[in-house]
Amino acid sequence: MDLHLEGKTALVTGASRGIGLAVARALTAEGVRVAGAARTITPELAEVAQTAIAADLSTPEGAASAVGTALAEFGGLDILVNNVGAGDLDHMGLGGFLDSDDSQWHHLLNLNLFSAVWTSKAALPSLIERRGAIVNLGSVNARFPSTGPVGYSEAKAALVAFGKRLSEEFGPQGVRVNTVSPGPVGTGLWRDPDGFGAQVAAANGAPHADFLTAMPATFGITSGRISEPEEVAALIAFLASPAAGNITGTEIIADGGIIKTT
């Protein structure tokens, strides 16, 4: 399927690994000139992106700098993918609300919500001019606020609402805004031996390998497996493209069937 993306420009945040890197690869394969922003530039990002931007997207200065660099490189933006999220392990405690300090809330909200606010504000003038698209990366955790680190589900729920706000305000000006909310995805967050998945496994007294094997059943995934980054990236590329020209203001769940309600 031709997504009609040849020659378009895009900024992908959190592009050094995982879903963000998969999105950068998917868009590049469609002929998009991609700027990938991340706190650390990995060799994989440097290889796939036309421009790799080192920026701390959890700060307003870093987010504005990333957009400014992409605009200077390309002369304008057609696509913004607000993918950066999750958080550093030392800010992803597994305790309850009373165990979580303000620094955890600030870190998770800045990275998972405000980074998208800041980049969108900086990119929208160009996106309006080019009648472009924004795709935000949400999470099914927004619907399960009692699971995961305190502050993460709340940030993702707010991100979904933020995307809807933008779609309503800027849709009449030709800018489409959508959110993709995956369930667990096979990135380093879950699979790395020192990642969040290993932390959860240890907290439950289970070997990491056994935890990964049990994840589909534990999470109630109908398909029997977690998603892969490339699958989420393909959906994001479609939503960013003219092929999805009348899809806006939506949240698309890509969770393998975790959510059982209509």
UniProtKB/TrEMBL annotation:
Which keywords describe this protein according to UniProt? Oxidoreductase
Q: Which InterPro entries match?
A: NAD(P)-bd_dom_sf, SDR_fam
**Oxidoreductase listed as a keyword:** yes
Domain of life, per lineage: Bacteria
The record's annotation in Pfam families points to:
adh_short_C2
Quote the Gene3D superfamilies the UniProt record gives: NAD(P)-binding Rossmann-like Domain (3.40.50.720)
| Family named by the database record | Belongs to the short-chain dehydrogenases/reductases (SDR) family.
Supply the PANTHER family for this chain.
3-OXOACYL-[ACYL-CARRIER-PROTEIN] REDUCTASE, SHORT-CHAIN DEHYDROGENASES/REDUCTASES FAMILY MEMBER
Q: Per its record, how is this protein called by name?
A: SDR family oxidoreductase
Q: What is the protein's species of origin?
A: Arachnia rubra
Q: What taxonomic classification does the UniProt entry list for its organism?
A: Bacteria, Bacillati, Actinomycetota, Actinomycetes, Propionibacteriales
